[in-house]
């Protein structure tokens, strides 16, 4: 269902449940636990002092702690105190050291994870959701998720997530960080994941609606998990086995959460640009890069180094997209749609073309016809049954949609050629493509 934008209204004098607020005047509220009763209370921060109580008045409203289900409340790590924030680069460095000592994260992985943790503490200020897909052995990634659970704000470590369980989470009120061990591979769940990376989009849920905007880390597992807007981090087998105990996780939370809460409070009143920085290449991860860059404050050298790292990641994502099965599938569909007198494409035919292209490009995995059908539905191109065979009917709207998707994914097959296809002319202009080649290997 197409998301609806529903403006938020807070009537004057209302009593509002909250999991935390950042006010423009630098005042902040945050969910905490009473050490004696274990019940939720609120931390109030006015820029210099911390107060813990059940109710706060601000700007004509009364704020009380959010009420959540007991089982869900037990899953939350909440900071017991706050440490005054000094330098973002110093806190980021401490997080990077933790990740490097604990995991074999390839490339900039430790830095990306550290930036993600900081971003999870200021979700209200992010222009887009911070989103990471993690690859690697299940054991190592599980330990990583548990460490992130102890570091991120309002983190929920979920064994599995589908569209129904996602809608039933109190995402809008709790503003959780989602750590997903297994994501359902169906079009509706995928679309909700994409929607939840954008701010201000409401999705219907029963008689009510909610904004599902949320930062998230998702384990790819053995599936070819691809999420628009997500950066990739790969964890290699290594030294994470010694960090399995609950005591270790509590120590990590006790060490870092007061500092991270101090960072959140120090960010109250900050003005963060909501538009994309022109530094990012045209890439599906530009929003995520902008979100991670939003956490940075400090000296110009720190800003420049962080931006350079994220620009590299955006460029890598843009170049790596052409090896993605979804992107190659669009190349195959584009090529087959240009064959003369072709009125439909069998899903099995697309699957065979995709697997041939994957083999030709050195990939050692194959994609089933069923998975191809799911990809097509995700693209808004649902196959239909024709004499017992699932096919993609090449009517004008379908051909146009294939070309639109090819443009959005920037597939390389049809670049810099002479055009003979009217849909290519419409999509790319007069000097971009030709009647796409028969081979995509």
Q: Mean of residue pLDDT?
A: 83
Helical proportion, percent range: 25-40%
Terminal residue distance:
36 Å
Characterize the overall form: elongated
- Largest sheet geometry: 6 strands, mixed
- Measured on Cα atoms, how large is the radius of gyration? 24 Å
Quaternary state, please? Answer: single chain
* Largest sheet: spatial strand order: 8-15-9-14-11-10
Please identify the top-level CATH class of the largest domain.
Answer: Alpha Beta
Q: From the 3D structure, determine the CATH topology of the largest domain.
A: Rossmann fold
Structural class call reads alpha/beta
CATH architectural group of the largest domain: 3-Layer(aba) Sandwich
* Tally of separate domains: 3
* Tally of strands: 18
Number of discrete helical segments: 15
Low-confidence segments, ≥5 residues, pLDDT <50? 1-8, 430-441
Beta-strand content estimate: 15-25%
Description:
By secondary structure, the chain is of the alpha/beta class. The chain folds into three domains: 15-69, no CATH class; 88-319, Rossmann fold, CATH 3.40.50; 324-428, Arc Repressor Mutant, subunit A. It contains 15 helices and 18 strands. The chain has a six-stranded mixed β-sheet, sandwiched between helices. A hairpin with a 2-residue loop joins β17 (384-386) and β18 (389-393). α4 packs across α8 (246-267) and α11 packs across α12 (347-360). The longest helix is centred in the middle third of the chain and has 22 residues, at 246-267. The chain is elongated. The protein starts with 14 loop residues before the first strand and ends in a 13-residue tail after the last helix.
């Amino acid at each position: 269902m197409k998301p609806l934008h529903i403006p938020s209204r807070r009537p004057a004098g209302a009593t509002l449940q909250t999991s935390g607020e950042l006010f423009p005047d630098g005042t902040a509220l945050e969910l905490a636990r009473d050490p004696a009763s274990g019940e939720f209370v609120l931390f109030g921060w006015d820029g210099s002092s911390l107060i813990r109580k059940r109710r706060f008045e601000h700007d004509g409203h009364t704020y009380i702690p959010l009420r959540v289900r007991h089982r869900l409340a037990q899953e939350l790590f909440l900071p017991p105190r706050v440490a005054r924030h000094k330098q973002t680069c110093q806190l980021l460095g401490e997080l990077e050291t933790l990740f490097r000592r604990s995991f074999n994260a390839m490339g900039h992985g430790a830095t990306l994870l550290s930036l993600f943790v900081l971003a999870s503490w200021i979700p209200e200020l992010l222009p887009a959701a911070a989103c990471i897909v993690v690859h690697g052995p299940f054991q190592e990634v599980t330990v990583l998720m548990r460490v992130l659970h102890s570091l991120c704000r309002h983190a929920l470590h979920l064994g599995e997530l589908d569209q129904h369980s996602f809608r039933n989470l109190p995402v809008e009120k709790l503003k959780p960080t989602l750590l997903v061990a297994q994501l359902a591979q169906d079009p509706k769940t995928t679309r909700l994941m994409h929607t939840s990376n954008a701010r201000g989009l409401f999705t219907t849920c029963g008689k009510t609606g909610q904004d599902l905007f949320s930062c998230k880390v998702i384990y790819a597992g053995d599936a070819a998990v691809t999420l628009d807007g997500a950066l990739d981090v790969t964890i290699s087998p290594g030294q994470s086995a010694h960090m399995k105990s609950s005591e270790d996780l509590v120590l990590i939370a006790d060490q870092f959460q007061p500092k991270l809460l101090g960072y959140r409070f120090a960010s109250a009143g900050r003005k963060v640009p909501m538009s994309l920085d022109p530094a990012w290449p045209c890439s599906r991860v530009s929003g995520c890069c902008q979100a991670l860059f939003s956490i940075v404050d400090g000296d110009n050298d720190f800003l420049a180094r962080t931006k350079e790292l994220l620009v590299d990641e955006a460029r890598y994502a843009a170049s790596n997209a052409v090896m993605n099965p979804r992107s190659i599938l669009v190349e195959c569909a584009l090529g087959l749609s240009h064959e003369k007198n072709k009125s439909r494409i069998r899903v099995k035919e697309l699957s065979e073309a995709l697997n041939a292209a994957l083999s030709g490009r050195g990939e050692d995995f194959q994609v089933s016809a069923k998975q191809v059908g799911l990809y097509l539905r995700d693209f808004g191109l649902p196959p239909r049954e024709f004499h017992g065979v699932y096919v993609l009917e090449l009517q004008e709207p379908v051909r146009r949609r294939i070309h639109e998707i090819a443009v959005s994914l920037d597939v390389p097959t049809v670049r810099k050629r002479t055009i003979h296809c009217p849909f290519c002319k419409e999509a790319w202009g007069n000097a971009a493509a030709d009647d796409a080649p028969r081979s995509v290997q």
